[in-house]
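Report of the visiting student (M.T.), summer placement. My assignment was to run the structure pipeline on a short list of targets and document each run. The first record concerns Acyl-CoA hydrolase.
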Amino acid sequence: MSNFSDFKNGSLVQSNPVMQKIRNKTITAEKFASMVKSGDWIYGCMVGTDAVAPRKAIFQRLGDGPDKLQNIEMWAVDNAFLGTDFGLRYDKEGKYHIQHQGFIHKGTKDAIKQGWQGFDWYQWGWAMHMNYQFARFYRKEKSQRVADWGIATIAKPEGSYVNGSYGVSNFMITAKTCKKFVCEIREDHAWCEPGRNVNLHIDDVDYFIEVDLSDPDFQYPRLDERNIIPSETDKKIAEHILSIMRNGDVLQVGIGSLPTAVVLAISDSDLKHLGVHTEMIGEWAFTLIEKGKIDNSQKSIDQGRCAWAYAVPFIPERYFEWMHHNPMFAAYDINYTNNFLTLSMVDNFIGIMSFAKIDIRGQVVSSCVGGRPISNTGGQFQFTVGGQLSRGGRTVLAATSRTPDGKSRIVGMLDRGDVVDVPSQFVNYVATEYGIVNLMACTDAEKARKLISIAHPDDREELEKEAAKLGIKTKHWMFDVSPDRRYPSANELKDHKHGYMDLVIAPKGVANPNS
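After the run finished, the structure tokens were exported:
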């Protein structure tokens, strides 16, 4: 861990002209909150760069009276792990604030269950969202931008620049969609190497805020991901996913019991020369590098480097050790990591993601079940589609065959209020503990038959009846005549790339049949 020599007793001290400039812009969180006006919009970046001190100071000012704040609108992709109970604590009824937020994690769910009324969910779709929804916020003229304030967490400034650290994904976009940009400096955040859109000149930051890391509200919950123990069901799913993997694959993996099971399965396998191109980087990558599985040596782009967009430093010192000025990790904004065009150039990409529900036609639900938001789409759509544009690419949507309360995740028809996150025509591999199937280019009957085969055995008869009601021919003679359906294996698809994805710089001339 850096000794962070430019801080002394929690305050910035002058050490050179650049640090003096930073010191001149440094204010307390309370001073920042005093400059916020009723009716202001505050954009709070996302997990990994989710500034907490200024947000807490704003919540503490909410209320009635001339010195209080009302009608505050906060916008965030995801305040997943820090300060998730501020709304519950300071304005439970949502009388004075509303939090517009994409992802919903445990802290937010707990606050909602306890009666927090200030939460407002919106659909979030990563790269498409960056180009689509942020058009609402951005203006070329800074004074005309929609968000009154942007707040973000950064690493200790170096030279004349600040670093987006663990939340690069939309750090720069936040800076470009607000009238005033405020950065809180955290001693425990690593200076992460670019990539792109990671470093911002200090002149583009309006204020800096000192953070007291001894405050429990500003500390990440400590979770050693190495201690996550996958269930036997997760291990079975991981085995199925491993069956379609090859040496040199480029991984996109998340966090949780199932991803951990996949990582452990890879650790014990003969796979080698793996690479990383992912949204979320973390312990899974550190572990596989230590095991000699990841070296990024066979990547078609960003060779030798793990490309990533955000991280959650559950064990700050371990993340700092791995990522501080480590050129093996290249931090990128989401418009790079999750972009269809980027993914089309990542040969042998394999994205491993989860889902909540899928119908027998292959429509995938991940964000909102029965009208109840449970998380968000995130990069699932981009990686599912973009990954298949990769030469030899595959994407896997994986889950247990049943929910914790015993309901089948594979259903005949979706329910009212379910939100489709990935349309059926884009779905590639689907895995449960009962197998893994490839739905790419399949007919309705083929999709239904494959999905029913990996449903819980006790649910398959009912699913067959549902298919019959929908007129889907799962019992047709064609399955007897050609049971293998002439379907390619994962290995046979290793050199496959859609012809129309070859880059064309300029259109060709009109064809001349006589030439």
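The chain has 17 helices and 28 strands. The chain has two domains: 17-218, 226-476. I thank the supervising group for their guidance throughout the placement.
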